[in-house]
Design a protein that fits this description.
Layout: E1 19-24, E2 47-53, E3 57-58, E4 64-65, E5 74-77, E6 83-87, E7 90-96, E8 100-103
Antiparallel strand pairs: 1-2, 1-7, 2-5, 3-4, 5-8, 6-7
Length: 105
């Protein structure tokens, strides 16, 4: 590889069915008044970026219903939604599509 060029990270996880792989968006560590909040007092961020989405779920009639989210979407999730995993030193969350609260416009 040439000097100065970076290799794009390969995604090693492909979510199945109606599962979605997301990465939480970290919020500012300093408050408006300039107070730095320690890690132990921080709440989990509610915003996340979709990294990958599964192929969808099966409807009552057996047809495949594609997911409403796609890679790159910014979404809102619950504090304790999904299962946290770590890949290559990065933290991700895998959750079912119905655990997503909304898509940010």
């Amino acid at each position: 590889m040439a000097k100065g060029k970076t290799k794009k990270k390969e995604q090693r996880v492909r979510p199945l069915a109606d599962r979605v792989l997301v990465q939480r968006i970290e919020e500012n560590e300093t408050t408006i008044g300039g107070i730095i909040v320690p890690d132990t007092a921080k709440e989990k961020p509610l915003q996340a970026t979709v990294i990958a989405a599964g192929s969808g779920r099966r409807g009552d009639d057996g047809d495949l219903v594609p997911p409403e989210v796609k890679a790159g979407d910014r979404i809102l999730i619950g504090k304790y939604a999904g299962s946290e995993i770590e890949l290559d030193g990065e933290e991700y969350v895998i959750l079912k599509e119905d655990e997503i609260l909304g898509i940010l416009q």
